[in-house]
Amino acid sequence: MQHLYEAFLGEKNRIYYLTKFEEFDKYGPGLKASWNWPAFLCGGVWALYRKMYGWFFAFWGVAALSSLVEKGGSPGLGAVIFFAPWIAFTIYADSLYRNSVRNKIANAQAYVNDELRLQELLRHKGGVHTWVVWVFGSVLAIGILAAIAIPAYVDHQKHAASKVIPQSELVISPQSGNVPSAPAVAGLTPVTPPPRPSQEQQPTTQNVPTTAQLIDLTAAVAISTKGLSANGEILVEIYNSTSSWEVKNIGITLINSQQHVDVLNGHSTAPAYTENYSADVSVPPKTIMSINMPVKWNYQTGYLVQHRAYGIPVVLKE
To answer: Which of 137, 213, 232 minimizes the C-alpha distance to 170?
Structure first.
């Protein structure tokens, strides 16, 4: 039997399994306890590697059952269902593999009588699936890289979105105001910033602002249009990415894109028609808000070309 074992096992850990099989054969049929580290670390993947297909699919069945029990509200029981068979399989893996090898040898002997042909057949049917190492090794490597890269990317995005604008980079409107004026629209009025506060009204500390001075926040506020409603209003989405400023007023410039294309193609000499609108809003830090703004012309042939945003510091609580 030893030479048949050798023919079936191939070169991968042959000495280890030959020793185990010889030991088990001394005690006759039945399962014998031992400990197989590859089976403990890889579970069903080791079974597939050793061509024990039934045990590989059994692992998938146990994993599915454990998941169903856990989703049913019994995570403890689900863990027991998953790990108990895994440990039991590890203890009896060598013996189960020996039984699998003996069964395959017996099946081959049933229809091959020539010893040389039998050994050649066992070498063909035995051995291991080396592709399992490459496939599952690649999956494991990709999983590890994803576990490292995805959280790092998410943290980077959060950091970029929550970056605070230094006051030195913010442009404070002069007393006369530099907010572009906009024509009056029903429900929307142009906003002029209040006069610059006197010296005694200035914040006493940089981190605890006390005034309602409008600040130009355009660089840190994203504004986009999301379509035209049935009543002729456009949906405007405002994203305040700052962490310590509240957006109080926005302005947008719309252009008639079809007329602009006609000018470029020489079909029209009139400049592309644009309109400015503004609206009072209240968008807290790190918040996305949508508002409806009425327009005077069919915005379906237009698009947003410029936006402006102004706000005030958020007073920090002690």
So the answer is: 213
Q: What predicted TM-score, i.e. pTM, was given to this entire model?
A: 0.48
Q: Encode pLDDT of 135-152 as tens digits.
A: 998 998 999 999 999 988
**Rounded to an integer, what distance in angstroms lies between the CA atom of residue 280 and that of residue 70?**
50
Contact criterion met (CB below 8 Å) for 125 and 8:
yes
Structure tokens at 55: 């045990």
Classify residue 267 by its DSSP letter: S
Per-residue pLDDT for 88 more than 90? yes
152, 143 Cβ separation under 8 angstroms: no
Q: Which two tokens stand for residue 229?
A: 């409603």
Q: What is the pLDDT of residues 177-202, one digit of tens each?
A: 343 433 444 444 444 444 444 444 33
Between CA 8 and CA 57, with CA 60 as vertex, the angle to 5 degrees is 35
| Residue bearing tokens 């719309």 | 254
Q: Rounded to an integer, what distance in angstroms lies between the CA atom of residue 94 and that of residue 46?
A: 11
Other Cβ atoms closer than 10 A to 88? 11
Q: 278 has which bridge partners?
A: 251
Q: CA Rg, the chain, in Å?
A: 37
